[in-house]
Amino acid sequence: MALQKFSKSVDGTIPVQALLYNDEELIASQDGVGIYDGLQKSPQHQSGTVHVTSQRLFYIDALKKASRSFYLELSRVSQTDYYAGLFTSSPKVTLHLSSDNFVAEESTQTGFESWECEVCAYRNPPGLSPSAARICGLCGVPRSLPGKISSSVEIPQSNPTSSLPPSASTSVLPEHPREPSLIACPACTFLNHPSMRTCEICATPLPKAEGDPHIAKSAPATRPGTPGSDNNDPDSKTIKLSFRRGGDKAFYAALKRSLKGRAWEVAPLNVANDGVRSGISGIMQAVETNAQNRDTNMSNALEDLEALMAKAKDMVRLAAELNERLTASSTTTANNPYSSSLSLLSSTSTEPEEATFIRSSLSQLGLQMENTPVTLDMMKDEREWMEQLARELANVLQGSAKANLSSSTGGGMMKERGIIALDEVWGGWNRARGVALIPPSTFLQVVPLLPAFTNPTITSRSLNSGLAVLHTPPYSRAAFAARVCGLLALAGPKSTTEIAQEEGMTISLTAEMLNIVEEDGDVCRDDGRCVIQENSQDVLVLGEVNWWANLFLGYSWDGQQ
Amino acid sequence: MALSTHTTTTGFLLPSIHSAPPFFTQQPHPASLSIATEQWIQIILKYARHRRLFTVRVEDSEALGNDWDEILRNERINRKLIPSYLSYILAQMVSQNLAVYEPPKQDRSILIYWRLPEEWAEVLYEWVSSSGNLNTIMTFYEITDPPVESPLSGLPIPLLRQAITLLSKSNRAQIIAISEGEGVRFFPTTGKA
Lengths: 561, 193
What we know:
The complex is a heterodimer of chains A (561) and B (193). Chain A contains 21 helices and 19 strands. Chain A has helices at residues 2-6, 16-19, 65-68, 102-111, 130-133, 148-153, 155-158, 166-172, 213-222, 248-261, 263-273, 279-335, 346-349, 352-364, 382-398, 401-405, 422-433, 440-446, 477-491, 496-503, 507-519; strands at 8-9, 26-37, 40-41, 48-53, 56-61, 70-73, 77-83, 92-97, 115-116, 123-124, 183-184, 191-192, 238-243, 419-421, 459-462, 468-471, 494-495, 523-527, 545-549. In chain A, helix 12 packs antiparallel against helix 14 (352-364), helix 19 (477-491) crosses helix 21 and helix 20 packs across helix 21. Chain B is an alpha+beta fold and 193 residues long. Chain B is 37% helix and 17% strand. Chain B is built from six helices and ten strands; from the N terminus they run E-E-H-E-H-E-E-H-E-E-H-E-H-H-E-E. Chain B has helices at residues 30-51, 69-72, 83-95, 117-130, 140-144, 157-169, and strands at residues 6-7, 13-14, 55-57, 73-74, 79-80, 99-101, 109-112, 137-139, 173-178, 181-186. In chain B, helix 4 packs across helix 6. Chain B starts with 5 loop residues before the first strand and ends in a 7-residue tail after the last strand. In chain B, 31% of the residues are buried. Chains A and B meet through helix 21 and strand 18 of A and strand 2, helix 1 and strand 5 of B.
């Protein structure tokens, strides 16, 4: 039957987009479609989705996607009819199929893979439609397929009648790369290359190759058909699409357009007509065009990204507004729970779960914040901008008064710690802002303003290695030295690690701080390199430094006189 | 941790600071360093006098089994002086004129002046006159290794030569070439020269 003969089964579990050739385009889709094979309903294909592309027609079965789906080459469709439907009869589209270009079909069987051009050695990628795969993508030279001759010769036999539209057979066939078998010289029997006109050895004129297109084309006229058993029956060459859920008109229009477009022959014809597509200049041009296309694609993609960036700001503002309104509504409810129905925001205030939901989604999106980050365009002048930034940074470091009340979210970066490296502060602040990030230069300008906005005051200080830190008063030079001395006096010598634990600071930061204390002469060191032998009784291990209160100052000789 | 003095097996009384671990580290803080170094120089000079030692080498801090063990190491607190710090201390001694590099033109070992060359000169002259050797010619060997133990026993030749040079400046001695090498003749003093 027609369906069996013309269709090719396909795994419908794969999305249609993935089934397309590289140069193929999906034009229209319609679900709720049944298939008639000839005049009979095809029982296996009664509910599915039909997709029409520039080259093919796909049927993806709704129930058994893997086994019952198929596709049909549009190049086989010679004629279409449209039936609008009547009463219970659904609208239908009839496809009349012609079987004369089996050849093209067979050539695609081997063509659907990566292959190397014989002329320019360009490796053509797989995934092109059969027509495009017939020529080299770089130099435009037709691909030569070994063993082609056999199928070419068959054309006359399979050509049924002269009633077929001429386009498909005559225009496609000459494009075929053909490689007829070697020609035996009638004089010396040398097997000549098919392109030779005279024998290479004895120069005897050679008979023309059997597979010559002229012979092939004349065949239908001289031999009017070797009809198969069912070839005369028009039913065996039609397939009907029954549109049970409408959409027939639009789909039919798309199908017509696709058929008219003749995408399956356009590609090779274009190449043939394009005079520049030959020689080195042609290759160069092809490469250039490719690069241009890639450029265009890239800039298109980046445009999208820019558009997204532009939208991000609005998004944040929206989130902030939403958040503020939610806060307002929740405080209203908290203050006067009985009058909540009177308030303007009654809808949200009576539904706290919704509010919580919105808030949690906002925070999941990273948009939760106390208020929007300060940006330069909000401020009137530079000075105020700096002060606002300092206020914001103070909030980030110490947590705002509001946030402290709500416990879990509050705190700030320096709630637990008295000293913190500047780079960590910068990173943390920008993470808190999320948008409109602060450049380091601005950050450094803001830091000196901090003491005015923080309580206890946070000041900056740079250590010997150049590391800058922000710290609270207990970590100033004098206070820290006094504390370390007190600790050493009380608990005896301590290693850097122990002091770091005591102070809750990182070891490297502690080492830096201790070096400064040592500079002041308040402590002295006991270097692990001076250990004779490592043992368990000694608190000091090799490579460590133990700190002692400075026992040299004020020492006087008490040894032998 | 209370620090206390300690008497070594050779009877030397070590100062209490010698039992403080930080004492063995070269302190980065300049004031602490200068105090600690001063104390080290004191210990080295006094110990050298105690045991009549005349040289310290940087290598002495690296290996066991030399005269300086009980000074440069403190087994009780598991600390030792590392060579770089000892080398710094030796340089300080030389710069303070308490020692001299011996042999010259290197900085790995020093000759300790636990008596200055002037003092040695006086000691030498005292000993020569008290032992009745004025106006006689003596070899260096006779001075540094006399049959009866003397304050000059074991005196290194370079130091002896310096002392004699100092004496000859005040006309109390003269170096004379003799068959076995060098000799020295001491003259009685003619009042204040």
